[in-house]
Known about the structure:
Chain A is an alpha/beta fold. Chain A contains 13 helices and ten strands. Chain A has an eight-stranded parallel beta barrel. In chain A, α3 packs parallel to α4, α9 crosses α10 (224-234) and α11 (238-256) packs across α12. Chain B contains two helices and four strands, in the order βββαβα. The interface between A and B is medium-sized, with 15 and 18 residues.
Amino acid sequence: MNRLRRTMMYVPGNNPGKLQSAGIYGADSIIFDLEDAVAVTEKDAARDLVASAVRDIRYPCEVAVRINHISTPFGHDDLRCILEAKPDMIRLPKAEYPEEIKVIADLIGRAEAKYGYPAGSIKMMASIESAQGLVNACAIAKADPRMAAIALGGEDFIADLNTTRSADGAELAYARSQIVVAARVAKIHAIDSVSTILNDDEAFLREARMIKQLGFDGKSCVHPRQVELMHKVYTPTAKEVAQARRILDGIKLALERKSGVIAVDGKMVDGPIITRAERIIAYAAVVGMNKEDADE
Amino acid sequence: MAVIRRVAQAGTVESSDIMITLSPVEAGSGIEIELESPVLRQFGRQIRKVLETALQEAGVAAAKVYANDKGALDCTIRARLKTALNRALEEEVKA
Lengths: 296, 95
């Protein structure tokens, strides 16, 4: 585990003030949006502005750019302009077929060679926003080694299902699980849809805990406030870290003594529990929780 | 050499942005820049330099530039000028 994507925060691409301050909110990734957040008449201006910001501003986090789909009149122009500036990642909206990923991955590869960037240094992710995309989610996730994450675009997906958003999100349950499964098969990150809950922290936290429980690695965010709340949910507790350490210490001791099955805190420890403990320790290390924190 | 044949604009008057309007002038009359900015005294010279350099790099030798700055960074000024230039230089769509 070397990069977290707990929060991928959208920033409108044609707003210089927001582009300037995008790095200060602590999101693991920022996504400069050239798609839905930009009026059709300002697509050219937004891509010039985003390219210039990516080139000149040093951001403390991963920088992704959501391009317009390559089937629109803007997608290829977006890629031509943005790739020269070398973002960390290109996010494709409304992905439906693995062939779309391959086309973009090929263009990225050519740009890396043309501008002398290391091969494979610009990653990709795609968001699934339709029933067709969901059916192909696994193939999309595995379409190219550049793929680092797959996301759910909830609002468009719900519209495609002919339904509406509810408080408990039942209409997204199948898609969310399917996206996580596709991500796990491809060994990439699973990113949940944005939440439109901005003024109710408890409701947002409930959703965040639920998607974490489903297996998501993070969430697309639309407001800086959501970043702090997401990180709160995704940071392991000191108790969890301490327990994980006891499990791994117990396993180490058992191996030294050449004993078989062991128990920690009165529970049998087997393969999946060890895997989970290792994940918690790796996560704690990435978020900077040292041993003293865990011992508190 | 790039010749500006029509008026084009990019940017807004929102905070941190700059609105740039390019207009054609007679060949050989050079670059004329009219700049408004709340930080004119401190950064006026720097903003003009960014505009002049970007026009020079684009091969534009003659143009009138009206820039209404609202505290834009250099990268924003360059981006807005690039967009205005592309809009000024793009082919007219024939009916």
